[in-house]
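Ticket reopened. Same input as before:
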Amino acid sequence: MINVGIVGATGFAGEELIAILLRHPEVRLTNLSAIIDEPKPISGLFPKFKNKIDLICTKPDIKKIIIDSDLVFLALPHTASMAFVPHLLKAKKRVIDLSADYRLEDTGIYEKFYKTKQKDKLHLHQAVYGLPELYREKIKHASLIANPGCYPTCAILALAPIAAFNLADLGSIIIDAKSGVSGAGRKFAEDFLSSVFNEDFKAYKVNVHQHMPEINQELSKLSHKKISVTFVPHLLPLNKGILETIYIKKVPSTLPGRQAGKYRAPSLISLYKKFYKKEPFVRIRDEGDFPSLKDVNGTNFCDIAIKEDPKSIIIIAAIDNLLKGASGQAVQNMNIMYKFGEHTALI
Amino acid sequence: MINVGIVGATGFAGEELIAILLRHPEVRLTNLSAIIDEPKPISGLFPKFKNKIDLICTKPDIKKIIIDSDLVFLALPHTASMAFVPHLLKAKKRVIDLSADYRLEDTGIYEKFYKTKQKDKLHLHQAVYGLPELYREKIKHASLIANPGCYPTCAILALAPIAAFNLADLGSIIIDAKSGVSGAGRKFAEDFLSSVFNEDFKAYKVNVHQHMPEINQELSKLSHKKISVTFVPHLLPLNKGILETIYIKKVPSTLPGRQAGKYRAPSLISLYKKFYKKEPFVRIRDEGDFPSLKDVNGTNFCDIAIKEDPKSIIIIAAIDNLLKGASGQAVQNMNIMYKFGEHTALI
Amino acid sequence: MINVGIVGATGFAGEELIAILLRHPEVRLTNLSAIIDEPKPISGLFPKFKNKIDLICTKPDIKKIIIDSDLVFLALPHTASMAFVPHLLKAKKRVIDLSADYRLEDTGIYEKFYKTKQKDKLHLHQAVYGLPELYREKIKHASLIANPGCYPTCAILALAPIAAFNLADLGSIIIDAKSGVSGAGRKFAEDFLSSVFNEDFKAYKVNVHQHMPEINQELSKLSHKKISVTFVPHLLPLNKGILETIYIKKVPSTLPGRQAGKYRAPSLISLYKKFYKKEPFVRIRDEGDFPSLKDVNGTNFCDIAIKEDPKSIIIIAAIDNLLKGASGQAVQNMNIMYKFGEHTALI
Amino acid sequence: MINVGIVGATGFAGEELIAILLRHPEVRLTNLSAIIDEPKPISGLFPKFKNKIDLICTKPDIKKIIIDSDLVFLALPHTASMAFVPHLLKAKKRVIDLSADYRLEDTGIYEKFYKTKQKDKLHLHQAVYGLPELYREKIKHASLIANPGCYPTCAILALAPIAAFNLADLGSIIIDAKSGVSGAGRKFAEDFLSSVFNEDFKAYKVNVHQHMPEINQELSKLSHKKISVTFVPHLLPLNKGILETIYIKKVPSTLPGRQAGKYRAPSLISLYKKFYKKEPFVRIRDEGDFPSLKDVNGTNFCDIAIKEDPKSIIIIAAIDNLLKGASGQAVQNMNIMYKFGEHTALI
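Engineering reply: fixed in the latest deploy. New output:
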């Protein structure tokens, strides 16, 4: 049983973290805080939690958070996390940070895309990128997890086997991404909705979105090449879910049907199944079977389908942006860190 | 640990039952059946269940169901249940029937509203109406539960204290009900959606809906008067959730602030809180605080708000039609029948 | 050909006014203004108007508006209109005010419900309530139109024949109203959407909404009785449309089938058809045929269905809140004032 | 004034055609037919047309259609049109066919993608592909118009300048298309909705959709090269609108900033503006300004935005699939054929 605090309890990710942790048998929620005018019961802010939890949500008080918690989730906008992490780590607390602050190893890129200084370089190199499918061993012992972004989680899982074994023209990757409005946090959703309402759809931040360098970083590390994807996100008129349609050109010399590292597989689908064989939250679809958002929403799964054409590969991957794309993955990381069952509380 | 079968596993209620029971520690799903052309893995029919359950869904085979199951949920359209119940009860199986077949004590009314014969009068009088808030003791020992309809669950919980203590003009009850499209079963939702799509809203079955007599029956039993409500259902352009706005005229002689049975309360809100004090899934809102669908969707709660005006009472109540209005309540009944914790698996 | 200005061109009503007036053969749009930071082409603010109109939208400059316009539409929040009307009327301009400022004859009620002073009592009594079905003759010669609210337009049209001829228990009227989110103006829609998104539904301002006294005023004038309705509005997860379900108790002495003023009719439906016979934008449905929002959205129609039961009357009425409930009706009023065909530009 | 018949009046395209033609001053609707059980007033089938048109919709009677009509719109599923066209052309009627039957010049491809014979090769070569931006002169004199598909209209307009002047790697075109559910006809929308509802999104017919060869045909004709695009359509949880995000690789030798046919332009945006300068229904967005569905829905416009990166070009184009993608374009073609103003009735 561990004591857990959440800073940023009133955002989408914070709300979802509470919902998950309320059904976690090894967790006691002990401190909820957020930037609010005055303390309020969390069940007053989210009536759905009435009769389930009556903790008071307060402004963040770092001393109290340290006293109350073994582990702290930071569900904050970028830059805000850097104000908490040094104190928490100094006090020997473990931290799972859902912001972007500790995800990018290159602070120049962080500063270019987030328009702010990375002010905590000291702890940046301690941070473990919290994608269990790639970094499970490191996560076990981490004191600071940089929980991945939603678009990157989906894109990296969709492309990891191809990047790792250099199975296509890695310079040609195009990611056409579509997300429900909660993807960008409560504040952004409000702005977006003000102009959009129900019957709209549009692209935004065309090829300049701040999640692009995160995808590039991880694919480059996997492939040992400098990868630079084309990335166009769109906003769907629905609450949650991300679906990415990814296009890559083939290169003749590296098609499967041959050895790919320790795997040997007759098709990409078969290779992906082997690659993710032991992963509890990645599901590879059979030939011709493509995921819908409704298949993954409400779950921590990432569903991946692959269609090979003579010249190109089309990959379609889907996640719930608030679960596998944020709070579900954060709890998966916690489960790994504390040796709880990796599935625990993740329905 | 009990073995459970579901007949009608491919409808909305069946799908939701599977989702709940998959996280129930005392239940083993052993038989899934539905009217389908050929046997298929349930995870092929609902890809979201992939990696969670790989049971094959077959056509219903009553002998096999009896062998496989201790308890059977019937998630079938009305009239279909009557073909299964006699066999199951004869074989000493317990049954929770989500159809309307065993809900109405007056077979004449059943036949008028459902346009079909009640062919199993023998077991009709054994059936217990599965609303735990009214019939928990009987449910404990029941072999056949008639699980309530979605609109009636919401309406009866919203009106029970007033009906039980005759606190208003019970002849004046008006129920203006609004439901997501899943409320009427998958088949109906398809027909509805074909003409409606996203940006529509309408009333249907104005004052002739088949759930009206079910509401009348239970309110009449509570009040020992013959009650006949006005009931107008509407279809909302969303997937799930029921919200009912109920209007009742006051009668001077029976206002609260006086004794109401064993309760004494200064206001209706206060009376309702006492009435439902021990109920795990009923939440009474404070003055001026009204429920939204988002407060109850995904939960087994019924949220109830009351506004008293000098001449009338307005009650607003909300449930998730697939949970407290169907499968959640069915599992709540199962939990009571088998002395599992009443909350088990109901997040 | 008249020159027309719109103050408040960037709200929902202003946007819709522009769309309608762009196809009006007798209107030249000459001045668009709104509370904005700096002048912008209206087609920059609403890209859908590109290639159709390139007028610059500026801050309101009353002198320029007076020079540019014969008629001015005020599509402003309440209280803002009172700052423009005196200047415009003094300059002999005709004004159609879409705000609530000149709708309520009783300034005490205005001040109670709108929490602000009615500061222009001088012109208040000149204002004509712009519901053509009741006040067409006065509208012809009016210099100031108080364009009705959206909920009141629907409710008053739905109840006018019953109120005018006292055909039911006018003390028992209950209006259960449902509106798309645009009903309350762009600012409100933003706030609402921030918490609601797609899959929600809720009541708000339960029996205290500021449109209630407007309904009471007009029904009282029609019936020569003091009428006080019960009014509960709800917000639908869709962009536009209002549907109201109205409940009234019958009184034996005043049923139809007898003389009702100059009409004689065997049923209420038949009476309504006679009452609205010459109205271009009211459609009475036949027995058992109920309106959907999709039947009226995009049109200036009000569709009304009536169901009589032995003890009560249920009326279901629907309008597009931005057309018959706001800008469409405003243009209908303009057409009457200038003797244009009443249908002109109202598709 | 011409007499117009519509075969297939009850589908989405037929319904939209009626709505447009009702406001067309040069058109008299004289014959409405569809595959229905018995004759019904069109305003009974679509209550929104009440008080606007009371024509009876019957089963198609070719003799009566010929007597009643100068021009016939066929708003039918593919293969059905081929049963009407020969009779109508023989009787010297002009025909605008909204189906796919006469769009593909290569009958082998038609038969492969539509799984049926092209049985009217005689008239196939008379058909003019009804995209006014490319074929306006031929449309003027055509007796048979093959009205383009919705996806192809958007894709071809988005790519025509690049294809015509060979300005990029035409072998690398990827079209990631997203459509509202009405895009595929009423029958398909029903099937789709049965499994999808509000909160879903998915790809379908991944790189095998029947609109792909239509895009290939027209781009190949423009470029005098054999072009084969990658095309992945997706279904959006909204009623109408198509947005396509298109990716093309640059080739150094053919960048703009040089002569492109008769145009000379410093950027692609500038080139597109020149190319479509005289087109009433194509709008090219300025740098950094991308279209939303709400900008084009309800209009006959195609909005196109272009983003150039060092290595690739991203084009985002949007139309209302029922207007510029079907019925609006059909009326635009009629306006051209009969020398009516090209804008007439297209708001």
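The interface with chain D takes residues 181-182, 186, 189-190, 193-194, 197-199, 237-239 of chain B (CB under 8 Å). Chain B has a mean pLDDT of 93. Please confirm and we'll close it.
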